[in-house]
Every structure is written in structure tokens, then in C-alpha cells.
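Archive entry: two folds, one per protein. Generate the first.
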Amino acid sequence: MEFEKIIPASGLAAEQCGQGLTVDGSVLAAFTEQAFKRLSFTFPQEHLESLVDVACDPASSENDRLVAVKLLENAVIAAKGTLPLCQDTGVAQVFAWKDAGVCTALTAAGGTVHFGSDEEAFTAGVGKAYKENNLRFSINIPSSLFDEKNSATNLPAQVDIFGTNGASAGAAECTESACSGRVAGSGGMEPSYRFLFCAKGGGSSNKTDFTCATKALLNPQSFERFLKTKITALGTAACPPYTIAVVIGGLSPEQNLQTLKLATTGYWDAVETLNKIGGSIRWTDTVGGVRPLRCRDWEERVLQIAAETGLGAQFGGSHLAAHARVFRLPRHGASCFASIGVSCNAHRNLVGYISREGAFLQKNVSDPRPFFEKAATYTAHTAAHHGEPVAVELSSIDAARAALSKYPVGQAFLFSGEILVARDAAHARWKALLESGKPLPDYTLHYPILYAGPAETPKGAVIGSFGPTTANRMDPYADDLMSRGAALITIAKGNRSELWRTACKKYGAFYLGTIGGAAALIAEKHITARKVLDYPDLGMEAVQLISVKDLPVFLITDDKGNDFYASL
């Protein structure tokens, strides 16, 4: 793991006080802004290598290889810094570990207040990053239990600050008396401020599963049954290949879930590496004072179970997971908390730190082309090419349905023509129309519907990063829409419920999947035009009409009720 100096020592604060480390609040804001900009467009080398491994694994299915190559091509496009890696640029999360010898200067010379707290500084950096980098505003603010409105800023961010070595997490503004003699650390360690920056998409967050189990789980047979049930239930909606994390135990549910969160981000791996290397900074390797026990033998078993599902990297194969992490925590004798969570293929996590030498941020790969070229070359030489994609012109719903009906589930197509874009909020408004006795808007009857919420559109571009939304969130609307001639062709990602499969058979409808996690690629290469049709107040969830060229899709559920995932 390599770090890049973002801010020199001379830029940390107007002046240092006492024997500790003083950091200006504006530095925290600027550092945070840079972190979220970097993680939204680039990946660490280790992540790119894992995708190459999927593409070049002789055991990979053709679809495994296809997805891996497309994700690497997507990384190449995103690295240009205009279209982010994923359309769901996530909830911004900042985890910070602040040593006792670190003070934050919140007031500038002359008495001007920059920020009221460290949290405000982090939030300001997040807000600027999302506003200025074509990122998506996904956060809804409640006005009542049931009513909400998009914040139009992607704020608030989640900010968690942990005090270490005797520090208070809410340590206030630096003063001479506060810092004097407060040199943090033990064993001669220098005081530092350490960070984990995350952009967590909704699809992968939704896959978090928490169970209050019992001691009966704590034997190999029961635990294996637990893993098989939970891993199969993950499905493909959160854009594999995944990092799958499992945590058993914990002195509280909160400790269990915090450990799980850090495991999905790769934090424990980073800490192991950095503390092994040594140096003047000690990275925090505990949660609430407890050091998790890593169970590497079971990590291998998790990967095996994931491969055995046959779900693969979205459309069948052996690479549902690229990594697995299993941790055990102490527990109360009457409790056995168990959780499982994932990080999707848009693995957007960075560590960083501030020390007396400056502010340092984990380096990512600025030019992923060698990784893409290696994977593409291998795939071109080894792929079996069973069943080339079939081109379908979306001239009319009836013509497209007739064409799709000729092929089995799993068939690949290239769609060209006009497609309606709508997801959760639009579907809720359509349902409200029906409940009030009004008809569906006419446009719902004439086009396939693709569930998506694109990122902000860059200047001069047709559309922002554009990828599919989790399909099964729209399943409750099946009969309402299909019975009225809408949603007879839908496009999204992941597996759907029996409710949707039954409706497809009843009404002669089709569901197709497209690649999740390739949002920059889809926006740049497959969408040629777009316009807003309805509900502009919904922001990224407004109803839009797009024109696509050779959009890759796979037939998941057909008009006979056959389902690709159910057949695996």
C-alpha cells in the first residue's frame, strides 16, 4: 500500500501549539474533498488485480469473463475524471481515529470561525466533492415519518470520530493549554489523525443481514448451513464480484455491525499491512477495545460456497465473490450476534492519515489500461463464444416481445432504440395515480422500462454515469402495471421474486439484466440521447427517455415464467 502526500507539513495549520499535532479545520475539509474525488473515479491496484484474476481464471464462465472485462473497461473510462465509476456514488462515510495529541484549529487568525467542529469540516469537504465532480445526490431528508425530499447535496454524510490514546472523540478547538504536553500514542508513537473514507451504495448496503442467533450456531455444521443460506440469499443485485464479510459474536449488536462494516471495506487488511510495516503511526485494530479474531480457514470456505451457488459475476459462473473475511468477537453467554455484508465491485474505500509530516492519502491507479488490456487479451484468446448476442431494435413493445419470445433465458442481446428510465419514486407516483382512479401516463405503455437513477450530467455529455438499479424493489408493482399494458419489458440488475416471475407468465412480460457496476461505460458508449419526460422534481429519479445503441442485456425471466437464476 502506497500513500501520496496531499498537503505538506507546512500547510497543516497556521502554527503548531504545544507538543502535539495541530490541524486546521480547512485542511480536514480539503483532505476529505480530495479523498472522495479520488475514490469516486479510481481503484486501488489490489482491486483491479482481483478483476483481472476473474477474467483470467480458467474456471471462470464466459459471463464471468465478460463482466470482469467490462468492469475493467469501465475503470479506464472513469479514471479520466469525468464519469464516476458507479451511478450510485453512495452515502459518504468518514471514519476517523483521533489521537490525544491531535488538536483541530477551528478558528483562523483574526477570529474567523471556519467550522464549529471536526464533523462540520468533514461534511464541508464531502459537500464540495459531490457538487463539483458529477456525483449523484441520493440522500432523502424526512419532513415527517412518511414524507421526504432529496437534499440536492448528498448531505448529510455519516461521520464517526473515535478518540484514541485517551482522546475524546469530540475534541474541540485547539488551544495552547489543551495541547501542551499532550503527545499521543504509546511506545513512542507520534500523534496522528487516521481516516477511512467510504462511498457506500444503496444496493450493497441493502444486503446487510443481522441475526440474533444462539450458541447452537457455534459448531461447524450449523455455521456451514448458516453460510449457505445467507450467501445464496445475497443474489446478484448488489453487483458482484463481492467482498463477503461475516462477523460472529460481539458484546453488542453495534460492535458486531461496526466490525462488519470495517471488514467489508478492507480496513482490517490495510491495518494488518500497515502495522506490520511499522513506523511512527499505530493504526487502530480494535472495535470498542476488542481486537477481532480473524478466521482464515473459513474465509476459504465462504469463497467455495459462493462459487457453488453458480450465480457468478452477475450472469452465472463461479465468481460471485472475489474476497471473503470472517471474524469472531467475544460474546455474552446469552447472545450470539451474526452478520453478513458485502462490498460491491465498485469498491470505493480509501485510508489516509495526517501526521507531523503532512496529510497522506492512499494512492489509487490513475491509468488502469494495462489491467484492462491484459484481461481483454486473455478473454479474446480463450472465450468459447457460445451464442453471440442477438441485435434487437426496439421499434415497438409488441415487436420486441415477439423477438425475445424466440430465445431461452440466459440469451444475450444488444438493444438499440428508445427506453424509458424510471425507478422507485416514479413507480410510487404511478401507483398513487391508479389509486386515485386515474390512468397511467401514456408513455409507460410504449417503451421498455429501465430502472436507473443516473449521476449528474457532465458539461457537454449526453448523460452522467448510468447503471441499473436493483430490480426487485419494483416487484410490488407487477400486477398494477402489467395488467394495464406497462412494464412488459423491464431492464435492471439482480434476481427477482416469485411475484414478478408469475406476473411475467400471466401477462407475457420479460425481465432482462444488464451489467451492474459499469455505469461510466454505459453512459459513454451506449446512450446517445436523453430527455426528461415527467416528474423533474425527483432529480435523478425523474422519468426520462433515453436512446441506446447496442446496450448489452441478458434474458433473465421470459414470458413463460422461466427464470435464469432459478435454473442455476
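Generate the second and append.
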Amino acid sequence: MIRVTMPDKSVREVPEGTPLADLAAAWQDTLDSPVAEGIVNGAGANLNMPLTEDCTVGFLPLNSAEGNRAYVRSLLFLFVAAASELYPDVHVEVRNSLGTALYCVTHEGRFSAEMLRNIDGRMREYISRKEPIEFVLVSRKLAIDSVVDDPVLGKDRIGLLEMRPDLEKIPVSRIRDHFEFFLEPLLPSTEYLGAFEILPFEDGFVLNYPEEGNYTKVEPWDRHRRINTIYHEAEEWAAMIGCNTISKLNRLIRAGKSGQIVRVAEALQEKKIAQMADYVACHKDKLRFVLIAGPSSSGKTSFSQRLSVQLEVNGLQAIPISMDNYYRNREDTPRKPDGSFDYESIDAIDRELFNKDLQSLLEGKSVRLPKFNFKTGRREYSGEIMQCEENSIFVIEGIHALNRQTSASIPAENKLKIFVSALTPMSIDNYNRIHTTDMRLLRRMVRDFQFRSHDALATIEGWPSVREGEEKYIFPCQEEADMFFNTSLLYEPAVLRKYAEPLLRDIRPEQGGAYLVASRLLVLLSLIEPMEETAIPNNSILKEFIGGSTFAAAL
């Protein structure tokens, strides 16, 4: 018998080998949706996992953030199982997420509409039969032997296992006769996966899934063609360097090619920035404002500084303006339902004053720009006066810079809108992705510790609020952009590991949801070969987060 501490601190004695799901059943009535995933000693766990020692357990509902991630992974597994049964010679690869959908392709050519309908039908058969998604432990040898001859998955899977020599038993998931390896927990059964749709898209297809908070309903999918184009570009860059998966990156690092990876990745970004500056220079008779927005930890400030340098190379005078200086005085700041200040709301910005100042600059008038004092919570004015000259370009950075209301008084011909984000093309293997939001969280965590005296716990606990603001105010405006810039660097996971691991290890199981996130990120980082940053130039966007940036004064 083993002792299990339940979420209410009560202790139950159960036979060794009892599945976590057996304990979840008694807890279901306390949750707003079916139990999706378990927590064992603070870390995520499959509900079908047998308990083998004394432990503390918890349960996550399907409508939670982690529950939604489990839904997406399980839906993908269901698709792969159904596709493999019907078309065993076809290999599916997840490229990236597009809103509430996974964009996937095949190595053997595109699925026809009929093939997708057949797969959809087979998936729904599995769902109607409530097929269990089993948790299985296999020997290390069996895990290697099962993929060693696979021309698509073999090298990546074996490379991942090489990074974890401590694992004697490898956890895999099974639907009927189909086995697959996933880094994170899956749902216990197919019966919860009824809400999805499969849509042809570009060279592949998308799996559209429910939004977080409503696992029973699929919203109409918004076709994110422009974002997908940026992903395609990033994937081409990754293919050029030869490290579109973690295993390939690891092999290059071990081969002593870190410097080459850094130089090519940085050069590709610099070339893109230079092209943007060239565009501005070609339209300098009309363009006066470059408006830059993006989510947290996307590297907006470093990008703005590098763009400014390239504008100056073109003979233009780049003048920075921060929208943060147009915050309303604290007493006029909108509040959230809980009474706290909502600094991410567009209503926290004095749009009237901002538009008035931009209009005055466009007309050639002298403008005294404000400076927001974050300590006092009030706008102040110094002696700084701006005026638009013939070669002036105002580079404006702010989370609301792309919102139409922000610069409504300025004609479209006078402004260029750029959306900046960190869209990682790196994957673990065909089915396990590195989430863009996870990479931004790692960036922010390292930066917060380095420069803002915040530990990883504070960053992780504040992340849901940050993400809520992004979904509400930032991402809906990305389609307003005239240009997109991807700040992700192929090598950055290998650099961030050294900084992030110690911070994540300081988080303890008793710290609840933060430990759940920390344990998940630690598993990811454990698969990545660490890399020294000696070859990284001081103007790199990554330096904004790890330190040593030549733009430190602006950060």
C-alpha cells in the first residue's frame, strides 16, 4: 500500500500501481469540466499513470490552460493514429500553431480532400468507441529499436534519448496498436475529443481545436496567412542552417559549430532589418512615423534600436518615441474588475494627446514631449522639444502602436506599421513543438531576474495576466501591420538554458501552478545542449534578455 495526499490534504492508502484516474473520479464534482490531467508531486502526469510510491496529487480540468494543451496534444495523437491506420506510408509533421489550430504537412505530399475526410471519419469512430489513451513504460532499447529505421523520426528521437541517459524506462502513449512519444501528458480517453475540424490549408492542413475554457465548441477558424508566411520564412532559415529540430541543433553544437549558427542567424535578421530600412528610405517623401508593436518579450526595443541604426545608414534621422510616456496619470488609469490598475488597456494611454502631438509633428510644429514618471504615476515635462525635419523618421514603440485608434489622426501614407514577435521554427520532433509562448516566457524570466529583481516564481505567476492582455489588446491588431519581423533566434534555447535552469529549480512543489510550469520547462531544457554565448554580437536581440546589449540604455 502507498499513501496519497489528496488536494484537500486528506491522505488515502491505495494499492501500489493504482492509476491516478481512480483517484480523480472522486474529485470530479469539484471541477467545472472533466479531469484532463493529473499532478503528481507538483508535476504534470497522465491520468492513466500508475502510482508507485507515496505522493501528493492534484487534478486539472479540461477547461484550464494546461487542460487545453493536453486536448491539443491528444487530438494530434488521434489524428496521427487514424492517419497511420489508413495511410501507413505517410508521415505527418506539425509545423506551427495558427490561432486555435495546428498547421501540419506531410513528407510525402499533400493529403487530398477525400483522404482528410476519411481520417476525420476514422477519428470520430475512435471517439465514439471511447478508446483509451494508455500510458505505457517501455525499455530504452525498445524505444530506440522502434525508430532506428524510421527515415523521418529516427535521428531526432534517438538524439533526444541521448540527452536523457538517466531514463531507463521511456513513457509512451498508445491508442490501440499505435504508440507515440509525447513530452507532456495526454487525456485519458478519446471521448473528450469530439470538438475539432480538419481543413485543407496551403500545402497541408490545419487541425482546428476549441479555445481555452470551452472544450466542447470549435470556433470558426481565422486563416492566419500572413503569420504563416513568417513561419515559412523562419523554417527556410532553419533549413538553411540545418537545425530545424532540437536534435540537429544539439549535433551542430557538439560539432563545434555554435559560432557559425550564431553568425548566420544574426546576419539573416540584420539583412531583414536593413531591407525594412531601405523601404522607409525609398518612401521618405511621405513616411514620417514607424509604429512598432508586439507581445511581451518579443524584443521590440532592441529591434527598434537596430532599425534606427539602419535608418541612419540610409541618411535618415531616427527619433525614438515611447508610447509608455503617454500613460494617463495614475488616478485616471482604468481598473480591472478586481480593482487593480489595467496598464495594458488601450484606455490607459492618452490617445487624444498622442494623436495631437503626432499631428503637430507632421505639420512641422515644435512639440514638447511628455515623460512618464513610473514612481509618481504622473506625466512630466522637461525641456525636450521635438520637431520634424526633412529627413526625420519617428520610431514609435508601444504595445498599442498598431491599434487604429492610437494614430487615427495620421494618414496611412505617413506611417509604417510593424508587428514584432518571436515565432520559433524549432521543434523537438514531428509531433512535439516548442511553444512560442514558452520561449517568450523563458526570455522574460531571465530578463526579469537579470534586470528587474524578479524571481522566476513572480514571472510565472504574472504570466497569465500578461497573456490575457496580449490576447485582448495586441494580437487582434497584428493584421493591421504592413510588415512583420520575427525576433526568434534558432540558437537561443541553447543559450537560455544556462540562465533559466537555476531559476526554475528554485521553484518548489508547494508553489502550485508555478511548479507545474517550471517542471514542464525543465523537461524541455533538459533536451537541449547548452551553448556559450561568446559569439553573440552585442546588438543581438537576445542580449536584451541575457545582458550585455549595446542598447542597454534604451532597455
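Annotation attached to the second fold: The domain at 66-223 is CATH 3.30.980.10 (Threonyl-tRNA Synthetase; Chain A, domain 2). The mean pLDDT is 91.
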